[in-house]
Design brief:
Helices cover about 25% and strands about 25% of the residues. The chain is an alpha/beta fold. It has 2 domains: about 180 residues, FAD/NAD(P)-binding domain; about 110 residues, FAD/NAD(P)-binding domain. A hairpin with a 4-residue loop joins strand 5 and strand 6. Bound molecules: flavin-adenine dinucleotide.
Length: about 300
């Protein structure tokens, strides 16, 4: 079996950037991806905050990143990594599909998934009125009426951002009170274009022509329903990193993110984590690719020092 210099788990922006940097440093690289190369950004209808490219569809940006990694002869494989065994100088990486690979260093770039509400047409409305990122997509609805689902800090932050640019913002939360920062709550509640809808569950996404036109909400206690006409719903009910299977090779934060340092290095030699799966406060394309570069260059340094 070939022992790669570096195995990268996850082919999103962080993993693809790590592959580009590692290959340009002459390291052999295997990039393992479980679904589709490009990661979350491939679902973004339009990306406008990635420097140097203007406006571009997420799918096109992802395709270009993959092309760049492939042009550098990165080995790739489709598989869901389910186990990493750290044998010191060599790490064994196993997939659910039964494959086994070896490398001297591993970079985890497995991202994080936005928690879903679990409504039947939620996935198909992604990019058609449903979004998980106001920073990314809020600008498309400037002047419009939108809703935010969630009661934590990030939901409050998204609602504040949207209330700066939208005509009206409904904030829908299933509890009576919000969990997020009190100062943000006060700022939000004082805004004339914000309507708080609590305690309420979103029970349906209405999109008769294929684009979201309204959300149906149900009062948690009375059971009464109401339809709110909106052009977009921003769902901010948390993110879920999927690193549970790798807790044997790197420490996790209380929320399940990789607890690595600013150099993206885990305490165990030769293990790195990059991108949205890393414990940090800003999860964006730019920070993911930044992490990918840092993790790859530090992995190269580690390999050269051993
Ligand atoms: C709809 C949408 C729009 C967005 N728009 C913007 C925007 O406009 N601007 C911006 O800056 N950011 C935007 N973001 C956020 C941005 O996409 C993320 O911050 C970025 O993709 C994170 O990159 P990543 O590589 O760390 O993780 P991800 O993109 O999540 O990639 C991780 C990859 O790892 C794979 N993976 C996970 N576990 C395993 C495993 N066990 N084995 C193998 N593979 C695995 C996943 O399938 C995935 O492909 C948006 C996100 C979404 C969902």
């Amino acid at each position: 079996m070939q022992t790669y210099d570096i195995i990268i788990v996850g082919g999103g922006p962080a993993g693809l950037t790590a592959a580009i940097y590692a290959r340009r440093n002459g390291k052999s690289v295997l990039l393992l991806e479980k679904e589709g190369f490009g990661g979350q950004i491939a679902y973004a209808p339009r990306v406008e905050n990635y420097p140097g490219v203007g406006a571009v569809s997420g799918a096109e940006l992802a395709e270009r990143m993959l092309e760049q990694a492939m042009d550098l002869d990165t080995d790739t494989d489709i598989g869901t990594v389910c186990e990493i065994v750290d044998r010191g100088a060599v790490k064994t990486v196993r997939t659910e599909e039964g494959e086994e690979f070896e490398a001297r260093a591993v970079i985890l770039a497995a991202g994080a998934r936005h928690r879903r509400l679990g409504l039947p047409n939620e996935e198909e409305l992604l990019g058609h009125g449903v979004s998980y990122c106001a920073v990314c997509d809020g600008g498309f609805y400037g002047g419009g009426t939108v809703a935010v689902a969630g009661g934590g800090d990030s939901a409050l932050q998204e609602a504040l951002l949207l209330s700066d640019i939208c005509k009206k913002v409904y904030v829908i939360h299933r509890r009576d009170s919000f969990r997020g920062d009190r100062e943000k709550q006060e700022r939000l509640f004082s805004r004339d274009n914000v309507e708080i809808v609590t305690p309420a569950d979103i029970v349906a996404l209405l999109a008769p022509g294929g684009d979201l036109t309204a959300v149906r909400v149900r009062h948690v206690r009375s059971g009464q329903t109401r339809e709110l006409a909106v052009e977009a719903l921003f769902i901010s009910v948390g993110q879920v990193p999927e690193l549970g299977a790798f807790a044997n090779v790197l420490p996790l934060t209380a929320d399940g993110y990789a607890a690595v340092d600013g150099e993206c290095a885990a305490p165990a030699a030769g293990i790195f984590a990059a991108g949205d799966c890393r414990g940090k406060t800003v999860r964006q394309l730019t920070t993911a690719v930044g992490d990918g570069a840092v993790a790859a260059l530090n992995a190269c340094r580690y390999l050269e020092s051993t």
